[in-house]
């Protein structure tokens, strides 16, 4: 009778627990559900009977707590934390050791070493942050079902500043955010600390992100006020035990707006003094404050050019304001003047390259992956390799501003990796963007990478569940840019979706293909910047008038009766000349230019045959059609994995894929119908011409532009 | 051994379940946790052994499913749904009966009757919606620990249209929303139906809300496009089984913006035809579509006056466009012209009262509770009682635009009730606003009430956990305006926070006092509209210049060296003359006017003695100080209930109360320091003058106004 009641109660409790456990995505990849298979679970249980940690610093305590939480969940049994292993074996030992090394090599301050010692697994490093990263690495081993026996792993981050940039506004909106409102609750801070902040910090620490710029680069001056610094300090207090430093985007005119000065001229003594005092004030409130990010003289933001000074004048004054504080200035190179006869491609280069060597040692120049603006595919930015005396911080975009918002499944690691692996030839072959950024090409001590966050207050953080993979992949690549997108996709899939091997293969392949597919149905062959005006939603290749010429589509695709594409060779804008000769050679000849970059650099005749055997027009149509149809394939792949997936999660993504299919057809129809008005050729058989008219599609696009 | 393993497993599962059960507020008042006390639980178990329902209509199926879910949770045992009770007793029987009556009275279509029959509890009504409301009423009985034995309850809604108005924009922001982004995911619709929509519908149905206007009254025309109607139809499909009809706010110029016409003149035949065709299109997609809400010629929105027509011309054309479809037009009376010498108080009256009798029978005129705009306290709107031939729909605001956003605990039922109970004397004493609105005074068949929703995508829906009480209270009052704020507060507290009797008393009292306290520290004695410009955050009584004179503060408080307050007597704007003589008498004499309304109607000398024995200046200071100090009392009350509260929820509100205290002091200091510059008198002892200066407070206010 007792037994029967217990079973009944058990059933009820299980039912209650599982109903509250429909996967709503909140836990991200930090899912510590009990491993169902007894055999591997027992193996892990034998290797993780306790956690020995004598550390009292926040990072080590965080590491021990996270290991306990994770292992207790995964192994289905409580794992105690003890002060020391003593004579016990079969446990995990956390050890901060200022002299820690691995294989005779000193570890970097954040690098960790996991190894076996006396039948225990030791996680060591020179700092408590290193041990924290090692703890998450160990959990990842278990989550991805890798063996622990004989584990010997050493890992150092290749890039020092691994940052998220939040484009979050003080009113709670997120510029280019598609996952709800900002997670920062400014009206509640500093009194209330949303528990979500801690989970955010855990997620970042688990993938090695060590800094967050919490506010939009189009910055409000208010963040530098005492009122807001108290709020920022409260957030920094949550981040600190997770090895994360807080940074602020600053509004250049802050000394005027909140400082009562009548100028923000960087060479004005009162301005210098104001910033120095402000830095002191900040560091008093936030001793580990990371520094400043600046968008100046760009898209209407104020900057030093308002006073006849240049970017270096501005950046250096700010860097010097930091004095002896341990902070940096990240100065964005995303600048472009309105010039209908120019080429926006060249403008950041022309403004910044001449300043190489003029920056203070505390300044990093932050450069987007490509020369325009986070398009689905861009050639690498010509500044990479062109400013050897300046550490360049790579900025990539995780929020899918130009990649389908939160309804298109696009795994971004291939995009980021394509940039990282691009060879600048700056110091001969092998001078990849990755090696420029990590400092090895030019021997910089400072190195950095930033991802524009795709995070919002949506329950699952990123809107599209697979957006989580982009947050994850960014962190992993920031730590180690040698990792492959496939490896990262498989890790994320196992930790987040399923460990069932066939499903993991299917889903990893789906993720890997997704970005190429997106490019195909939106901007094949090197097309770029043909999306909807202002909101950047859907296609608008016909856009010919906008607030600025370089905000139109025709500025970029230059379609006419002859052909399509932006001639950036010597016969055109000659933007190609910004690259090293080897790069020019690779892209400079329309006959040999890889098709993915063709229309970035060449104006190609509609009837020009391509290496595929098709004319440009026919190839263009073929790519739009096959791209859109590939979304059907994506739907099939997702469906194939269904048995291995949580039903709620499955339904969520399945529905988004339906929308993606609809919108892929929208892009296809809009682009082939519009370009057809210039190419004046039929949609090639066997492709079936769109059932709707160009006017239909234009109406639809216009609808989404309405107030 | 087996037993031991089972227990261990049980412990684990319970631990897992309870850890995922920290109260994050998502479940609102529909918490179906098992009743801990065995004795009452067993009593309920005996009365709810099964649910008998032969109904196959959506509403009855919804009712049966919700009862099953709720009772299974509350009673801790599965409650089966069967087709018929047969000879079984001790169950609950759902019965739709077109002839259902109670006590010899026919039920209204949505009214329910719960009674005992052959040892079963029968929930009956004329429609399946009625049975659904009865089911939620039964669950409420259990949740609030009321007995079921011998239950005999009849309840009819007093008002027919019980609506939420969402001020949600297509881009996902919510105008005057403080709980995150919109819950409507327009980019995902219609393919993806967020599970949250269903929980939203459940919550509304549980309190009798039967219609939702899903978009901002400052409306985008896009909602009337085929593309968006498909999305709206998908939402309507989720709402339908919960008895909820979907309505749209319409942009008056839609025939021009999306219809291709060159006018939106309501008397233009093409415009009429466009709207008629649009209505047909809507009803084809959404057969139970509720109708239109219109904000026209108000705050910059287009309207019939753009064509020399009046509000009735516009409303009637739209009503006639509905043809035989079962829908209504709700036309907002919230209009006011910029006039620095006028009195905004009078403007809606002056525009609408002369139109009484001119409206189509399908039109309701939607009137805010007060004449200005959702201030913390307003006299009732003078249109109530002044348009006997027109059904007036009462609009109240649940989102705390002027009541402290999501950091101030303000229970709004007393505010709403104050308006409902106000006597217009339209047809002699007892012609309360409630009876005007519910149609009994003027014998209208149509009756309606709307609450501007305080709902967003925050996990707990309303930002401040106690914001949920305002959603709840609105629904309950909309159903039965005779309920007391205290009764509703106690219900909500028991269902949402705790059933511990002492804590329920403490919390109910806290809720009841909260609005008076808010008034005291922000706008005592009838002050109004002295909040921060544009965002309406914090105090700004010194605001003298704005986009319009009636957006300043000085327009309303009229402080000068003589005194304070807006003279609306015959000697002033004479707005008082809009009311019936009995009302004029009540408010018209500064000596006898209730202090809560004093400065709404009188310019009172600073040194004028009030019935409290203090001068106006001293009374003003006293109220600001005691109001701000009452927040300390609120904190104490909340702390007193701590043992009965979920720890996460406790901490959340405790932190918000800290912010509330800080901001109450902000209001106090801003107001007494500013008014002191005109009153030129000291802060009366024993009150301690603010430590900060007026300049300090002004700087702080300005900070929150920055970009």
From TrEMBL, chains A, B:
This is Xylan alpha-1,2-glucuronidase. The lineage of its organism: Bacteria, Pseudomonadati, Bacteroidota, Cytophagia, Cytophagales. The keyword Signal applies. Residues 28-138 form the Alpha glucuronidase N-terminal domain. Belongs to the glycosyl hydrolase 67 family. Pfam families: Glyco_hydro_67C, Glyco_hydro_67M, Glyco_hydro_67N. Residues 142-461 form the Glycosyl hydrolase family 67 catalytic domain. Residues 462-685 form the Glycosyl hydrolase family 67 C-terminal domain. Its EC number is 3.2.1.131. SUPFAM superfamilies: (Trans)glycosidases, beta-N-acetylhexosaminidase-like domain. The keyword Signal applies. Transmembrane segments: none annotated. It catalyses: Hydrolysis of (1->2)-alpha-D-(4-O-methyl)glucuronosyl links in the main chain of hardwood xylans. It is an enzyme of class 3 (hydrolase). One of its GO terms (cellular component) is extracellular region. Homodimer. InterPro entries: A-glucoronidase_C_sf, GH, Glyco_hydro_67_aGlcAse, Glyco_hydro_67_aGlcAse_N, Glyco_hydro_67_C, Glyco_hydro_67_cat, Hex-like_dom2. GO terms for biological process: xylan catabolic process. The active site is at 299 (proton donor), 373 (proton acceptor), 401 (proton acceptor).
């Amino acid at each position: 009778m007792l037994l029967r009641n217990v079973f009944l109660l058990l059933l009820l409790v299980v039912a209650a627990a599982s109903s509250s456990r429909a996967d709503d995505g909140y836990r991200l990849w930090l899912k510590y559900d009990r491993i169902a298979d007894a055999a591997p679970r027992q193996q892990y249980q034998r290797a993780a009977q306790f956690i020995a940690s004598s550390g009292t610093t926040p990072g080590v305590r965080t590491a021990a707590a996270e290991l306990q939480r994770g292992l207790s969940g995964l192994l289905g049994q409580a794992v105690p934390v003890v002060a020391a292993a003593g004579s016990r074996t079969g446990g995990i030992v956390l050890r901060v050791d200022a002299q820690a090394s691995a294989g005779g090599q000193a570890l970097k301050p954040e690098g960790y070493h996991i190894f076996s010692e006396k039948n225990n697994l030791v996680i060591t490093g020179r700092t408590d942050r290193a041990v924290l990263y090692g703890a998450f690495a160990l959990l990842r081993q278990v989550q991805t079902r890798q063996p622990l026996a004989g584990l010997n792993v050493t890992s150092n981050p290749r890039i020092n500043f691994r940052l998220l940039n939040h484009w979050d506004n003080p009113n709670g909106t997120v510029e280019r955010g598609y996952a709800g409102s900002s997670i920062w609750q400014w009206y509640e801070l500093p009194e209330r600390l949303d528990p979500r902040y801690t989970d955010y910090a855990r997620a970042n620490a688990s993938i090695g992100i060590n800094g967050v710029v919490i506010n939009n680069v189009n910055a409000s001056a208010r963040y530098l006020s005492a009122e807001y610094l108290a709020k920022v300090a409260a957030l920094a207090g949550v981040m600190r035990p997770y090895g994360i430093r807080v940074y602020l985007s600053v509004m250049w005119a802050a000394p005027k707006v909140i400082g009562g000065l009548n100028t923000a001229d960087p060479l004005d003594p009162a301005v210098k003094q104001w910033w120095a005092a402000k830095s002191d004030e900040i560091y008093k409130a936030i001793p580990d404050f990371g520094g400043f990010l600046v968008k100046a003289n760009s898209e209407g933001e104020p900057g030093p050019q308002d006073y006849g000074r240049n970017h270096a004048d501005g950046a250096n004054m700010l860097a010097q304001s930091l004095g002896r504080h341990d902070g940096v200035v990240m100065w964005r190179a995303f600048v472009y003047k309105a010039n209908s006869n120019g080429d926006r491609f060249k403008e950041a280069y022309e403004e910044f390259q001449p300043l190489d060597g003029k920056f203070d040692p505390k300044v990093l120049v932050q450069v987007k992956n490509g020369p325009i603006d986070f398009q689905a595919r861009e050639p690498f930015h010509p500044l990479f390799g062109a400013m050897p005396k300046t550490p360049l911080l790579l900025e990539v975009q995780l929020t899918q501003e130009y990649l389908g918002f939160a309804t298109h499944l696009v795994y971004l690691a291939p995009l980021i990796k394509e940039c990282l692996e691009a060879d600048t030839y700056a110091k001969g072959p092998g001078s990849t963007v990755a090696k420029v950024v990590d400092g090895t090409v030019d021997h910089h001590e400072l190195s950095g990478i930033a991802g524009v966050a795709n995070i919002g207050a949506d329950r699952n953080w990123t809107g599209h569940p697979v957006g989580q993979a982009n947050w994850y992949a960014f962190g992993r690549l920031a730590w180690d840019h040698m990792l492959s997108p496939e490896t990262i996709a498989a890790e994320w899939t196992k930790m987040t979706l399923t460990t069932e091997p066939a499903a993991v293969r299917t889903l990893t392949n789906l993720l890997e293909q997704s970005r190429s597919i997106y490019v195909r149905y939106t901007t094949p062959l090197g097309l770029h910047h043909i999306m909807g005006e202002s909101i950047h939603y859907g296609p608008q290749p016909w856009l010919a008038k906008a607030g600025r010429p370089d905000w139109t589509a025709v500025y970029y695709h230059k379609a006419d009766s002859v052909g399509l594409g932006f001639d950036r060779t010597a016969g055109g804008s000659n933007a190609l000349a910004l690259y090293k000769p080897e790069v020019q050679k690779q892209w400079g000849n329309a006959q040999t230019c890889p098709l993915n970059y063709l229309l970035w650099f060449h104006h190609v005749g509609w009837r020009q045959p391509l290496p595929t055997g098709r004319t440009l027009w026919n190839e263009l149509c073929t790519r739009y059609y096959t791209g859109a149809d590939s979304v059907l394939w994506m739907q099939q792949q997702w469906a194939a994995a269904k048995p291995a997936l949580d039903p709620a999660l499955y339904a969520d993504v399945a529905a988004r894929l339906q929308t993606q299919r609809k919108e892929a057809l929208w892009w296809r129809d809009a682009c082939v119908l519009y370009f057809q008005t210039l190419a004046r050729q039929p949609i090639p058989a066997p492709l079936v011409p769109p059932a709707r008219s160009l006017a239909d599609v234009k109406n639809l696009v216009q609808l989404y532009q309405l107030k």
